[in-house]
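quick one
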Amino acid sequence: MTAPVRLIPTAPNADNIAIINIDNPPVNALSHAVRQGVIDAITQAEQDENIAAIVIYCQGKTFIAGADIKEFGKTPKEPHLPEVLQRINQCSKPTIAALFGTVLGGGFELALACHYRVAVRGTKLGLPEVTLGLIPGAGGTQLLPRIAGVELALTMITSGKPQKVEQLDSYGIIDFLINTDSSNKEHLLTETILFAKQLLEKNHASKIITQLPMILDSEQKEAAHLLCQQFRDKLAKKSRGQQAPQSAINSIENSFTLPLNEAMVKEREYFVACRGSTQSRAMRHAFFAEKMTAKLMHSGDTKPTPTDITSVAVIGAGTMGGGIAMCFANAGISVSLLEMSQSNLAKGINAIAKRYQQAEARGIMTKQKVNQCMALITGTCDYQDLAQVDLVVEAAFETMPVKQQIFSQLDKVCKPEAILASNTSYLDIDEIAKATTRPEKVVGMHFFSPANIMKLLEVVATKYTDAQTLTTAMALGKKMGKISVAVKVCYGFVGNRMYACYGREANMLLLEGATPQQVDNAMVQWGMAMGPLAVNDMSGIDIGYQARQANTERPDDPTYFGAADMLVEAGRLGQKTHAGFYQYDEKTNKRSPDDAAIKLINAHATKLGIKQRNDISDEEIQQRLIFALINEGAYILEQKIASRASDIDAIWLNGYGFPRHLGGPMCYADEIGLETVVATIKKFQQQSGNTYWQVAPLLEQLLAQGKKISD
Ligand code: 3H9
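structure w/ (S)-3-Hydroxyhexanoyl-CoA:
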């Protein structure tokens, strides 16, 4: 194994300039070997009299993208990153970082510790630590505000969002911006060496960090405190329940109240506390769970290469079909949108144009990008126009006869190698595939609404889908920026099947005497983005009602979704009728509790012979909804509908607003312990006496073996 860090004592055409060459694929993370290697290289360069300046340069696709996240769960090993950065900064010879790619976390901190920074256009700089439940732990909260100001530091550190160097031009972070992009890395190296030569010619010395100014007068200090408070208040709502953003603000505040060395010590304390927290463990789990979804379990040795998809068709120009068409267009793929009539088609395309206009108005997309996307979308009412597309996604009505008829028609007109995908949320895709002569090329691509916004894509393999088709659908998802998770066929697949158990308990609790706002508040308090009943009102209670009516596997139990079904039959469909579990103001759509709904639910409970109680606690609501999810997730794993527990977590994090700092339902189960989970499920089974609370055998088995779900 070659060392990941090498000192090249003489750069091309510059005898007195050394290069510290870092080569640690895939993203040059600051693993222990890299940290040690950098210290050794700096020491060696300092001792070498022939070396006058040092360029830090990386091989591969990016400059250092941060600390090695895999090491965070292990015993920390010296040298720690702050020590490495201090060594770089206190080096008596100028150190210059040559930046390209995604310069993130510890990578950006290392660059800030260098005396100078050179970058190519398009380089992204960021401190994404909060997305991992951390704060920058090697000077980021001190160096960034000192170099670029408190406001930028607060924005970048608390959002975790990287920014392009061009956007940061006026902040004094980059000393020299090269007018090429990272595709020309040799040019970056040549220009950085030239920059170093010029520094030496002009006799520029090292810029030791302790000399960085951060002197604010009392007025400026007051303004900076106020800004910190504004961020605190904003993030208390936006990142509800998360520790890291608040710790980051505290640490940034130290940058103008404490001397650098003291503030650095405090930063490290905050970092270490965050690193050891359950929140950070859960968020690191989420990071790797999302990366893992892309790794398909292949039965053979050969891994199929995805087919290149350059043109697609979408059947149905409704809200879902339109959103799916936008996903393809956004990824630069041409889309043919098929509708039954010209008027429906015109309506669908107009709706897409409106959504793009909104994106442009909000500054999410440029006019140029909107025009490019719209130019990629064409409409047709003729199936023959789909003869040459590489892939079709059907997003038509959710009934088996309609889907089978569409697939049979597609099979006749599409080229033999075309992939035929269905966006069905519940229906048996094995049955849909049978309507074609190419069942191996049929797959589910289950988008979540709004399709152009939601990150999740369930890629559903039928029992006929071949590896090539599955790999292609997964790769296409990635190209569209989705978290694609491969799952197998069952009613509702992974996400909606679990959601049915969650919704079932929410509805049951209403019949038992909880109010809609009590259920929703308890779940929001627990960390969900929205309460289940408010979500149901938003999407339309009738959608689930119709799906349950069509489901032949639906339990023969009038209490099952009894409250929701009764409300639909009473004409209360949710926001669209201004009445559902709540009432909605006709003008503003503002939600408020509705006594009429509560009366209807209570009367229905009496009709069903359910004795209501007034002792339902928030804890009971939270446990019943979340443990129902965990139990169903365990059945799903046992039945191999999902390949890994972490895939289930990725689905819930990206499709259902599960709080990231709790890592997903299966991660959460491991965190609280299977003993508690199993004992509580058994208690609910005893209390309810119904069959919904049968403990999944997998949970019992893991508990008996002393294992976790993630093992
Ligand atoms: C930090 O720096 C703390 C410091 O402040 C203080 C320390 C004291 N470590 O995403 P990709 C792996 S916190 C380990 O598919 P892309 C990833 O798992 C860190 N592994 O590529 C995957 O592995 P595999 C702050 C990492 O081109 C492979 O690399 N930094 C790390 O689409 C390729 O990843 C971050 O949070 C890592 N840091 O995107 C950056 N990063 O092939 C996190 C990646 O086995 N990383 N891997 O599945 C990213 O945002 C993206 O990976 C990046 C590349 C944009 C860099």
